Amino acid sequence: MNERMTESKIVAVIESAIRAVNMDVELKQESTGVNMMYDFIKDEVIVDIDRVQKAWQELPESMPLETYLRVLTIHELGHAMDRKALLDSLDRTKEIILMKKQAAAEKRSTDLPLMTALIEEHETDIAFEETAWANAEILNSFFEIIDGVSFDKVKAHSLSTYRVAYEADLKIYNGFIHRQEELMSV
């Protein structure tokens, strides 16, 4: 999977996918460390050109870069379709970010309110991701942007990254709860 594309070709592929589903969402290039994301506040898709190519190479099964870009683009547009819900979640998201900033890193795994908020954040993120994928699937079935097999491969890989992080924090959280229960039963 060494097929490299120029920056302008990557932008052209993404913009063509946005136009193909008749959505009016701006594309912005930025070095974020995240391959592609939807900024629901500004209503724009952001692509990190270098990271998106690295992420494509990390796929468990190879596919053309253009295919990967099209799948990611309609997924991000799936988030755009859910923009109202994302905006509605903003106040709680800010609260959790503030809690994380205020918590000392070495004490995070023993701070029950913080761990509870982190689990909530993971569950919310996964729910938004699943909704975006469901919306992307609707877009794809209507506009036929990409083949279903490629779509499913990228979807499974993407969702697994969220679930792995969730499972790691859930393990810490459950261990903390278990220790609390042991202390209370003594």
SSE layout and pairing:
Elements: H1 7-20, E1 26-29, E2 36-39, E3 44-47, H2 49-57, H3 65-81, H4 83-88, H5 90-102, H6 112-143, H7 148-185
Helix pairs in contact: 1-3, 3-6, 3-7, 5-6, 6-7
Key attributes of the depicted protein:
single chain, 186 residues, 3 strands
Q: How would you classify the helix and strand content by structural class?
A: mainly alpha
Helix content: 55-70%
Largest sheet: 3 strands, mixed
Question: Could you say how many structural domains there are in total?
Answer: 1
Beta-strand residue percentage: 5-15%
Overview of this protein structure:
Helices cover 69% and strands 6% of the residues. With 186 residues, it is mainly α. It has one domain (7-185). A 3-stranded mixed β-sheet has the order 1-3-2. Strand 2 and strand 3 form a beta hairpin. The termini are far apart. The mean pLDDT is 93.
